[in-house]
Input
Amino acid sequence: MTTDLNVIGQRARAAARKLARLTCEQKDAALHMIADTLLEQQEAILAANAADLEAARTAGTSKSLLDRMLLSPERLATIAADTRAVAALPDPVGETFDETVRPNDLRVSKRRTPLGVVGVIYEARPNVTVDIAALCLKTSNAVILRGGSDIRQSCAAITDVIGAALERVDLPADAVQSITDPNRELVGALLRLDTYVDMIIPRGGAGLHRFCLENATIPVITGGIGVCHMFADATADVERAIPLIHNAKVQRPSVCNALDTLLVQREIAPALLPKVAAALSPAGVELRADPEALAILSDARGDNDWKIVPAGEQDFGTEFMALILSIRIVDGLDDALDHIALYGDHSDAILTNDPEAVRRFVNEVDSSAVFVNASTRFNDGGQFGLGAEVAISTQKLHARGPMGLRELTTYKWVAEGDWLARS
Output
């Protein structure tokens, strides 16, 4: 495959115009063909993945990252099933909304349209190649993919399979292209390919997001990073709060919607914090507590082997992505809101039985998702009923929170008249 980005961009733009003419049935048939072809060609995909894994092991890659890179027959079967699930979702393209008729009988509406060409830069997970391709195809968008250099052989093999599947149903293979050349300068060049690319979506760490924001001449949707908070006020049900805190911190500590900071109102802290420590310590969670919380936990520890250390200022405002939880005692709702306003924008929750506290928290916390008596782990496209997601946006323009199919579309105004001239 060529690494001339202008050629890639031209091909993607041409493919996007063809995709825009497709019916939902044609797109769904393509997705089912991709799922079939992935399974038919799994030997070639797994061989390429094995080569990536061997190179990564030689380079000393950690076991956790190797697991993220790994493909297997079982994982490919899941990827194929997920692709079929996207085919089963409603197609937002062409949807008409906000219809009105003006006093002069001009009929005005908005109609959902594809973005056009989407560029996605991601790391470590070869399954993202299929996930993004399926979501873009369902919304009639062409996509240019740039996976990490550590998975480039896997990405190349998967992209070849997707292209072959598209050709089998008479669709352009150029609708899904991958940049597999490991030259890092190509990432910067993709970010400036504004003649052809309409949106960039980075999926990776804070460094990747910052690089994209600072170097792109194309709109960038950032997300998937940010600090998640949970505030337990004085009315919270202690026994029911513990499973939620445990779920938010322990279920998958390395994901973006995992809990980072627990804020506890002073009145409930002596009852809640020892139970938090007792519940989280068996999972290996380290508690980084402010002086007041540290004193409560130290007094209650006894012979228990709790991992408790003093919190530094850097422990508030840090996305840990690990079995670490910072704890701060607050005076009440206003203090918690101030803290979240300073550090939050991703997923923030309140544990309370006070309706007025719920009202204020929901109204005043300005994050991509706000939760009431629920775990932050629910900030997910599947959990919100979107079926799938391309990313979780923490921005305010175009899309915010889990980005499903609708968030991969824009709209145009349609005005219809009966040979109507403006007076």
About this structure: The longest helix spans residues 24-40. The chain has two domains: 5-222+397-416, 227-378. The radius of gyration is 24 Å. The domain at 227-378 is CATH 3.40.309.10 (Aldehyde Dehydrogenase; Chain A, domain 2).
